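Hey, resending since the last one bounced:
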Amino acid sequence: MKPKIELSKEKKAGIVESIKRYFSEERDEEIGDLAAMLILEFIIEEIAPIFYNLGVEDSHAYVGEKLDDLFGIMK
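The structure tokens again:
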């Protein structure tokens, strides 16, 4: 089971507006709130976990390097 990414109402509204603006400016298409919300839900469910996991992997590697540095100062 994938963890659900939760966004505040305000953040969702802002992202929906960004999606609508993207379609308007980049694709010369007008989409409504429902279509933009469905795109956002797709991104949250299918794409965001990939980037989240990449962030976790990068954090793990960074912390691992710092631990190696810490063990390097042992006498």
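The radius of gyration is 19 Å.

Sorry for the duplicate.
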